[in-house]
Design goal:
Heat Shock Protein 90; five-stranded mixed β-sheet; 580 residues; alpha+beta; eight-stranded mixed β-sheet; formyl-coa transferase, domain 3; Ribosomal Protein S5, domain 2; 23% strand
Length: 580
């Protein structure tokens, strides 16, 4: 085995792989450098999702022209002096790897001037080679251009996501750092169009409006707590404002955006029993921790941290969020009475093929204890494997459940879950062709975040296939002109938001399975809600529509649409079948 020392060029490209994963990684590293330099204004320009150009300029303190070449060397930094400094890091950057790594996989130039210099300097590097210093007249601060990213590493270029996904990643970094540093004025331009900008006036709620939208920003609850030397501040959503995944949960530790499963878990635990299964809160939380109590030097991208007392931080975050929730949210009253087994735990999703759900109407072990005496399994006759029998409407209970009589007992139908199923199957039948839409008398204007607007813009033609007719109406603003005929009467903005709110990065929008997911989401938001009083005719129509469904026993998400109380079970409960 012949061991060799790799050339510097190869070693630099290997090192770059740890720091520069995608264009958004470049944006993150350069923005962090600008923040460390004390900039009050940061401009980001992107072409072709960052593959063609990433340009970032700031008005920070700049770099002495004589040190520009040194700044591009590996492990060159102004933020550390010795190993002891690693245990009290107070800056976002500290390794001195970012500029060298970026320059090794791009055509790179850096221009900078300090306020004490009459002229600045420029260094141009291509693929990590070159590096001649030029004198140049420029403003105070630093300008970095990264062109043709990964041009010399084609394998890395090949594995990048599609442009819309890479754009959303860049949007995510910029908008979240703007939230953490509201006193800095940010401006992001993608393909010569301004997609995000802030005023730099220090108002975090104003930036929340850009990150989400003004209506959501108004509803967010303030978190302001702490213990010992640790501060926990930020914003969380009320219990009626949720998402279907964790992507809207953001944590900053000492101004650094981090991804920490323990912190996320602590926040979710604070909402325990307050949210439906599968729903997650929105949150932007800022932790200020003494630098010696947190280690940020555990991941090349500096996106993970380790706390000296993880348990204390967990309890602190959970307690701070819980207190904020209780201050604005009434404590729900929980009734511990007769409960029917949760179909959501046992029924496979509509999207799983070939597996039939179990019969409806079985009692779980805990429920059996709450009635007088044990329940004989023979009391509850199982329903047929498919479908439901003809039902006769009797009335409505709690403005949420329809009471109906069938050939073998009583049926309680969840009006929301049943309507979800009805809408879903109607949509899926229409989906083979273009879903019919109906024009709105008054078009609805909706403002989205930069990430959401990019996603929607890229998929406007397919939204048309789903029955939405939408037009661009300015930066991050759209008008809903028409919506699916089936949804007329529901809130158009709410229906549209659910389509775009929770796409995951690797979802390829609108292939068959994803399209079914989208339709299921829209139906969930548009179905008649619990608490709405239905007329007798509306109740009868809903039961008839449910009987016509091919899978009437569960909603598209697997929740049961009905509970069956057989004649045998009712007779036993009233003591008509033997003594207890």
């Amino acid at each position: 085995m012949n061991i060799i020392i790799l050339p510097d060029e190869v070693a630099s490209q290997i090192a770059a792989g740890e720091v520069v994963e995608r264009p958004a990684s470049v944006v993150k590293e350069l923005i962090e450098n600008s923040i460390d330099a004390g900039a009050s204004e940061i401009n980001i320009s992107i072409l072709e999702a960052g593959k063609k150009l990433i340009e970032i300029s700031d008005n920070g303190e700049g770099i002495e022209r004589t040190q520009l070449i040194t700044a591009l060397a590996r492990h060159a930094t102004s933020k550390l002096r010795d190993a002891n400094d690693l245990y009290k890091i107070s800056t976002l950057g500290f390794r001195g790897e970012a500029l060298a790594s970026i320059a090794s996989v791009s055509r790179f130039s850096i221009t900078s001037r300090t306020k004490n210099s009459l002229e600045g300097g420029r260094v141009i590097v291509e693929g990590g080679t070159g590096g001649k210093l030029e004198d140049i007249g420029t403003t105070v601060g630093t300008l970095i251009r990264v062109e043709d990213l990964f041009y010399n590493v084609p394998a890395r270029l090949k594995f990048l996501k599609k442009d819309p996904t890479e754009k959303r990643q860049i949007d995510a970094f910029v908008t979240r750092y703007a939230m953490a540093y509201p006193e800095i004025r940010f401006r992001l331009t993608q393909d010569n169009k301004i997609t995000f900008q802030t005023s730099g006036n220090g108002d975090k709620r104003e930036i929340l409006s850009s990150l989400y939208n003004p209506e959501i920003a108004k509803q967010m609850l303030v978190v302001d707590s702490g213990f010992d030397q640790i501060s926990i501040k930020g914003f969380i959503s009320p219990t009626n404002l949720t998402r279907s995944n964790r992507q809207a949960i953001t944590f900053f530790v000492n101004g650094r955006w981090v991804q920490d499963t323990a912190l996320t878990s602590a926040l979710i635990q604070a909402y325990r029993t307050m949210l439906m299964v599968g729903r997650y809160p929105m949150a932007v939380i800022f932790l200020e921790v003494p630098p010696e109590l947190v280690d940020v030097n555990i991941h090349p991208a500096k996106s993970e941290v380790r706390f000296m007392d993880q348990g204390a931080i967990f309890r602190g975050v959970q307690g701070a969020v819980k207190r904020a929730l209780l201050a604005f949210t009434p404590v729900p009253e929980l009734q511990n009475q007769l409960r029917w087994s949760s179909m959501a735990e046992t029924i496979n999703s509509e999207f799983d093929q070939g597996i039939k759900p179990p019969p409806i109407g079985t009692l779980d072990d805990d429920s059996a204890k709450s009635v007088d005496g044990p329940i004989d399994k023979g009391d509850q006759n199982p329903l047929p494997v498919e479908g439901v029998p003809l039902l006769r409407q009797i009335g409505q209970v709690g403005a949420s459940f329809i009471v109906a009589e069938g050939p073998d007992g009583l049926y309680l139908v969840d009006q929301h879950a049943a309507h979800e199923r009805i809408l879903f199957e109607k949509f899926m039948k229409m989906q083979k062709d273009k879903i019919p839409s109906q024009a709105l008398l008054d078009p609805i204007t909706i403002t989205l975040s930069a990430e959401e607007s990019n996603l929607l813009e890229d998929n406007l033609p397919v939204m048309g296939k789903l029955g939405f007719v939408i037009e661009s109406f300015g930066p991050k603003t759209f008008r809903i002109l028409s919506m699916p005929s089936l949804l007329i009467g529901s809130d158009p903005e709410r229906a549209l938001r659910v389509v775009i709110e929770d796409f995951e990065e690797d979802e390829k929008p609108f292939h068959d399975q994803i399209e079914a997911k989208i339709i299921a989401r829209v139906c969930k938001r548009s179905a008649v809600k619990a608490g709405k009083i239905l007329s007798t005719d509306e109740q009868k129509a809903l039961l008839l529509d449910l009987e016509a469904c091919s899978s009437p026993r569960t909603c598209p998400h697997g929740r049961p649409t009905m509970i069956h109380l057989s004649i045998n079970l009712l007779e036993r409960q009233f003591g008509r079948k033997g003594a207890r």
